[in-house]
Design a protein that fits this description.
The protein is α+β, with helices and mostly antiparallel strands. The protein has helices spanning 47-53, 94-97, 122-125, 181-202, 204-213, and strands at residues 22-34, 37-41, 56-69, 76-84, 103-108, 118-119, 132-133, 147-153, 160-174. Strands 1, 3, 6, 7 and 9 form a 5-stranded antiparallel β-sheet that branches. The termini are far apart.
């Protein structure tokens, strides 16, 4: 078998499937409010990524860091920590919240500089799924939410917080922004039903044309209501 010449690389085969293409969207946002609070680590973190999510089926956050600033007219000790996956009952005190590996502690007075940045390692950031759904509403929230930021204060309900968040969210599986999974499924069934009707009406010639086009109808297709 002839050997490949030194220095010559084989061309990498590129996928032609649009669902394999990944788009990375960086974001920067600020969350404010009163402790205790949580923020989902999802496209809803910023308006930019939320708009991008309308055009894709799946997402994952691949970079995340955060730091705290002194709130206007409020001082106190606050802790921000990241928790992967779904957390039913997040820690409610600073001490408990600081048990998280990626916590950010801040005790600022008026005029104090921001806290240090806390960078979440990608391995801990990933959560339980390789990708997450951009469209919420499934029975299992673990396929929609990659994690949460849990924000606690030394005196809950009185301590204000200002958290600056930066990161990158990757998207894949482009879709029509006006489509829902149900409408896309209905269009697929409608197409299959129309093709099968054509085969039944025109016989072998239509079947040969469909086969050459690469279309593979299911053995049994239920047409959508109204057809």
């Amino acid at each position: 078998m002839p050997r490949r010449k030194k220095g010559v690389r084989r061309a990498r085969k590129q996928s032609t499937n649009l669902n394999d293409h990944v788009i990375a969207v960086p974001f920067s946002t600020v969350k404010t409010g009163t402790t205790n609070a949580t923020a989902n680590v999802a496209p809803s973190l910023s308006s930019r990524t939320l708009s991008a999510a309308d055009n894709f089926e799946l997402y994952r956050v691949t970079r995340l860091r955060y730091r705290q600033h002194v709130p206007t007219g409020g001082t106190g000790q606050t802790v921000v920590a990241y928790y992967a996956g779904v957390t039913d009952t997040p820690p409610a005190t600073n001490v408990a919240n600081m048990e998280a590996t990626n916590h950010n502690f801040f005790s600022g007075l008026n005029g104090s500089p921001p806290s240090r940045w806390t960078n979440v390692p990608r391995g801990q950031l990933a959560g339980y799924q390789p990708w997450y759904k951009t469209i919420v509403g499934t029975p299992d929230p673990s396929v929609e939410i990659q994690g949460i930021l849990n924000i606690t204060g030394s005196t809950p309900a009185t301590i204000q917080y200002v958290v600056e968040i930066e990161g990158v969210i990757e998207f894949k599986g482009p879709v029509d922004a006006a489509s829902t999974p149900e409408s896309r499924r209905a269009r697929m069934y409608a197409t299959q039903y129309a093709v099968l009707q054509k085969i039944l009406a025109e016989g072998p010639a239509a079947l040969a044309a469909v086969s050459s086009s690469g279309f593979k109808p299911f053995p049994a297709v239920t047409p959508p209501s109204g057809m």
